[in-house]
Amino acid sequence: MRHWLNSLLMILVCVLGSAPAPAEPNAVALYGEHCASCHGADRLGGIGPALLPGNLRRLKPARAGKVIAKGRPATQMPAFSDKLAEDEIAVLADYIYQPPAVPPNWNAADINESREITSVSGSVSAPTYSADPLNLFVVVETGDHHATILDGDKFAPLARFETPYALHGGPKFTPDGRYVFFMSRDGWVMKYDLWALAVIGKVRAGINSRNIAISRDGRHLAVANYLPHTLVILSTRDLSIEKIFKVLDRRGVSSRVSAVYQAPQRDSFIAALKDVPEIWEIATDPNAPPVYEGLVHSHEKGMVEALASSSGLFALRRIETPEPLDDFFFDPAYRHLIGSARDGKSAIVVNLNVGRDIARIDLPGLPHLGSGIAWTYQGRQVMATPHLKEGRLTVIDLTDWSVIKTIETKGPGFFLRSHENTHYAWTDVFFGPHRDLMHIIDKRSLEIVRTLKPAPGKTAAHVEFDRDGSHAILSIWDRDGAIVIYDAATLEEVKRIPMSKPSGKYNVWNKITFSEGTSH
Ligand code: DHE
């Protein structure tokens, strides 16, 4: 009997073992059939965003599966749950986080081919509305990838238009305040005419980009890229390429560019490099004096070149630092910068004139120096920075780099804002259970004097003042969000306008005059 049963079991094991296994869904084929038409056969993006690991860093893999299944409301991303089985969705969600077999490139030909320009100089000779063109706000709404132009006196929208997907960083304005440039994380740069209230054109300058900076004279726009490792300079006139820097340090090591900034007093761009211990300064003055670099190792040519030098427009000066530095704060004279050290616990002060580091400041809790602002406190110039990992604001004396006060907050913050004409600085509590709070700090006492809760349960973030500093505008960071306008002196709410996740807002006057209370 036992023998008979064993034989039966053997037969069953053989039959089951030889049954064909269900076919594994093929990610490449599924991608080609369902995704490539919008996101590009090479995953570099098309109507939809690029689907590469670097571009997806802010989307958790578990969430990616949900987006494929359910789509994204208010975008062109449809739901696939009726077309694809669960395992097919899982395979696709995994596939888009795999690096492509060949690292994608984006060269001058790709940039040129992407360029679309409708009109170079704009179609009007004066603003087409009666509002003060220098007191407009540009509000970036990342909820549905639009921007709103707001009259800064009446707080009434003048125009609303579609932007490239996932804008990041502040838009940059020409010195006369007429044109504004936006950048998306997928590398698209868009030019908009604030007089005609019309899009002028766009170009894709990279695959995964960080931010843009405009030169002091408003002629050149620098684009910082993670992918490829380039810093691209465009003409602001027609978005054509002026120069592409392949980013290699003196030893020939390639690097991503974390960010690029305008240094107005120096007439230059300053770039933070992510992977190498160098800061780059690029002249935007056509008469810039020569920069001698000494012996330079040329990785590409495999040799040492003697006394490399450059002068004039786009001359490159390299400042070596003890370690790669990120996320810069500049003092108001642009003589020094403070950059975050790798350990997330300290910052390094670099004197840009002499070209070397001069101090290290203990700043535990990952300071967000890019959001730092400066003002005068008891006759001294100070700056304050929020921290991304700890609930505090640190106030630093800009004359001796000492920490003069730590202000405890209800949680880690992201942005900090003020204006020359107000005694208050506004800082959010971006992360954690208190993300719906906004602290108001008196710049004279360095104390929190009021805490607002504009929309319970919803993140309150990013404040910008109007031209004369009499009003502060705050964002309710939600798809079903709003901007809330406050009287900057009484701290009372004046108006609320519904918007779709208004991530940041930017006042033309404060930007073009480099107001000390705002980002530049
Ligand atoms: Fe930003 C500005 C870097 C995540 C919203 N952010 C900047 C700038 C840099 C930077 C270098 C300055 C650029 C400029 O204005 O020219 N940001 C980084 C990061 O390294 C970080 C931490 C990780 C990353 O994913 O890149 C990061 N940033 C975010 C977000 O998650 C935010 C909150 C939402 C989003 O839209 O991505 C965000 N960053 C912003 C905003 C600004 C910004 C709104 C412009 C601030 C300003 O007032 O000028």
User: Regions with pLDDT < 50 over 5+ consecutive residues?
Assistant: 1-5, 7-18
The count of domains is 3
Strand order of the largest sheet: 1-8-7-6-5
Helix share bin: 10-25%
Number of helices: 7
CATH superfamily of the largest domain: C-terminal (heme d1) domain of cytochrome cd1-nitrite reductase
Average predicted local confidence, pLDDT: 92
Derived from helix and strand composition plus strand pairing, the structural class reads mainly beta
Gross geometry: globular
Q: Mind telling me which CATH architecture of the largest domain this is?
A: 8 Propeller
Q: Over the alpha carbons, how many angstroms does the gyration radius reach?
A: 26 Å
The set of bound ligands, ions and cofactors reads: heme D
